[in-house]
């Protein structure tokens, strides 16, 4: 089969789309004929390499994708040949109440081979059914970011309809999902972005108030917009450059929920601001299978919809990485096996 592969850690020139051995299907696995897949910022980290990430090369990336069941292992009862499925990439001990807290928790595509290929053998536990009327691009690009943003806002920050939320990086995968979830929850939604075009999209996806943080300090803007009060919840994933202003955007007793540090993981912080204002800093990663089902139900029925920045053949994966690294566009970048586009 043809598969996207990173041959070593490095820049985009380590990405190839080439022949790779067909996957064997294990007892509890499903062979998926991949129709579409999507990138996450995680694919950039995996390509570049991170401390503690020890991958067998070449590595097939990809933590989001969807397709048709081609074969099933002897132990699989939930799926049969011909079913439509999407990947939910978190792997934890399902006997735990919250598998994301498993010390061995890991993510398909990051720690083990992913789904950016013509075929992938995936544990049945990591597949969810896709309704017949859902487009492949939607099925392939929603699961990771919507589950992340759902857990951040609904489960971890326990957002209430009467509250206000500031979403940073609203044009990104997590950001644009958070906008929609916060809006659906009934909250007043504030959003930041680096261009006017991204901010227009943010308004279309649930933002009530928008700020171009390249031309204005967003913490000052939040204070002004909220009559000096600040917001109840900040959705953080940018990290070092925004951390202090994110804290400064919160009202007393406010909650900052973070899932990432795209632009730096070790910010300076303001301890007096945290204790004096009694702020909560909440970490969040991926979601439990039940939370995935809850949010994906709302994707399948069209309540939430991924915005697609661009759709490319897998052979142009290097360009797909560049779009994310250059912060071009709004939403998700989709890649499809070249054979699907012929
Ligand atoms: N813990 C988890 O479970 C989990 C799950 C998903 C993602 N994450 C993490 O969350 C972060 C966002 O992921 P994503 O897939 O949504 O990423 P993405 O699609 O690349 O979006 C990142 C957004 O951040 C904004 N940004 C601001 N400053 C930036 C900078 N210096 N460099 C790059 N982007 C900057 C950009 O918007 P503007 O240009 O408008 O500022 C961009 O759209 C990543 O760090 C990822 O690893 C964690």
From TrEMBL:
Residues 10-335 form the Enoyl reductase (ER) domain. It holds the Pfam family ADH_N. InterPro entries: ADH-like_C (IPR013149), ADH-like_N (IPR013154), ER (IPR020843), GroES-like_sf (IPR011032), NAD(P)-bd_dom_sf (IPR036291), Zinc-ADH_QOR/CCCR (IPR051603). GO terms for molecular function: adenyl nucleotide binding; anion binding; oxidoreductase activity, acting on the CH-OH group of donors, NAD or NADP as acceptor. Gene3D superfamilies: Medium-chain alcohol dehydrogenases, catalytic domain. It comes from the Archaea. Keywords: NADP. GO terms for biological process: small molecule metabolic process. This is Alcohol dehydrogenase. It comes from Salinadaptatus halalkaliphilus. The lineage of its organism: Archaea, Methanobacteriati, Methanobacteriota, Stenosarchaea group, Halobacteria.
């Amino acid at each position: 089969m043809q598969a996207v592969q990173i041959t070593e850690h490095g820049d985009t020139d380590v990405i190839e789309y080439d022949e790779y051995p067909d996957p064997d299907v294990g007892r509890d696995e499903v062979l998926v004929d991949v129709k579409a897949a999507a990138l996450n910022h995680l694919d950039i980290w995996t390509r570049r390499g991170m401390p503690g990430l020890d991958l067998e090369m070449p590595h097939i990336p990809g933590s989001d994708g969807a397709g048709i069941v081609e074969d099933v292992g002897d132990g699989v009862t939930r799926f049969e040949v011909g079913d439509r499925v999407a990947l939910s990439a978190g792997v934890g001990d399902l006997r735990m109440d919250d598998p994301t807290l498993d010390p061995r928790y890991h993510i398909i595509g990051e720690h083990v081979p992913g789904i950016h290929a013509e075929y992938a053998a995936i544990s049945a536990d990591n597949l969810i059914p896709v309704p017949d009327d859902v487009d492949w691009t939607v099925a392939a690009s929603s699961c990771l970011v919507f589950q992340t943003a759902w857990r951040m806002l609904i489960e971890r920050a326990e957002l209430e309809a009467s509250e206000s939320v500031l979403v940073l990086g609203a044009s990104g995968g997590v950001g644009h999902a958070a906008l929609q979830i916060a809006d659906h929850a009934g909250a007043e939604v504030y959003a930041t972005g680096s261009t006017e075009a991204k901010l227009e999209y943010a308004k279309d996806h649930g933002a009530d108030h928008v700020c171009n943080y390249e031309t204005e300090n967003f913490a000052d803007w939040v204070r002004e917009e909220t009559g000096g009060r600040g917001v109840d919840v900040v959705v953080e994933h940018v990290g070092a450059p925004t951390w202090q202003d994110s804290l400064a955007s919160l009202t007393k007793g406010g909650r900052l929920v973070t899932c990432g540090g795209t632009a730096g993981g070790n910010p300076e912080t303001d301890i007096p601001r945290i204790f004096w204002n009694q702020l909560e800093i909440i970490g969040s990663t991926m979601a439990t299978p039940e939370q995935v089902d809850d949010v994906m139900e709302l994707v399948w029925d069209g309540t939430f919809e991924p915005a697609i920045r661009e759709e490319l053949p897998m052979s142009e994966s290097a360009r797909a990485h560049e779009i994310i690294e250059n912060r071009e566009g709004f939403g998700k970048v989709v890649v499809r096996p070249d054979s699907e586009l012929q």
